[in-house]
């Protein structure tokens, strides 16, 4: 009987430890920097794991201002493992990626 209780206590402790590990493994995003929109350029996102280059998704949020006028705020949808940068077109973006990898 005592062995069964000791084993169940060990199992509970292992379950608690595994829960703590999962919580520690969750990655929180923190603000690294802000980019201002540059006129005439497109914001690209490059996923370093899948080597995928595509234009970044920008969402426009609308809210009511103090004087009853709409206030527009643009936000970029941030994806995991992506690097964001401005480029003139896709060819220019590919060249920027190649030049950064050479360094």
Defining traits:
alpha+beta, two-stranded antiparallel sheet, 3-stranded antiparallel sheet, single chain
Could you provide a short overview of the structure?
With 103 residues, the chain is α+β, with helices and mostly antiparallel strands. It has helices at residues 2-25, 90-102, and strands at residues 42-47, 52-55, 58-64, 70-76, 82-87. A hairpin with a 4-residue loop joins strand 1 (42-47) and strand 2 (52-55).
Protein model, in words:
- Strands 2-1-5 form a 3-stranded antiparallel beta sheet, with helices on one face. The chain has a two-stranded antiparallel sheet with strand order 3-4.
- The chain has 103 residues and is of the alpha+beta class.
- The protein contains 2 helices and 5 strands.
- The longest helix is centred in the N-terminal third of the chain and has 24 residues, at 2-25.
Helix content: 25-40%
Beta-strand content? 25-35%
Order of helices and strands: HEEEEEH
Could you report the average pLDDT, rounded to the nearest whole number? 81
The largest sheet is:
3 strands, antiparallel
Rg (CA only): 24 Å
Helical segment count: 2
Give the CA-CA distance, first to last residue: 65 Å
Strand arrangement, major sheet = 2-1-5
Overall structural class, as computed from helix and strand content, comes to alpha+beta
Shape estimate: flat
Uncertain segments: none
Number of separate strands: 5
Which helices and strands occur, and which strands form pairs?
Elements: H1 2-25, E1 42-47, E2 52-55, E3 58-64, E4 70-76, E5 82-87, H2 90-102
Antiparallel strand pairs: 1-2, 1-5, 3-4
């Amino acid at each position: 009987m005592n062995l069964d209780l000791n084993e169940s206590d060990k199992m509970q402790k292992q379950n608690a430890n595994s829960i703590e590990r999962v919580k520690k493994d969750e990655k929180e995003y923190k603000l690294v920097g802000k980019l201002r929109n540059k006129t005439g350029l497109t914001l690209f996102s490059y996923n370093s794991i899948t080597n995928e280059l595509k234009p970044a998704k920008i969402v426009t949020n609308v809210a009511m201002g103090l004087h009853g006028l709409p206030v527009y705020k643009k936000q970029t949808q941030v994806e995991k493992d992506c690097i964001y940068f401005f480029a003139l077109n896709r060819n220019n973006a590919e060249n920027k990626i190649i030049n950064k990898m050479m360094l």
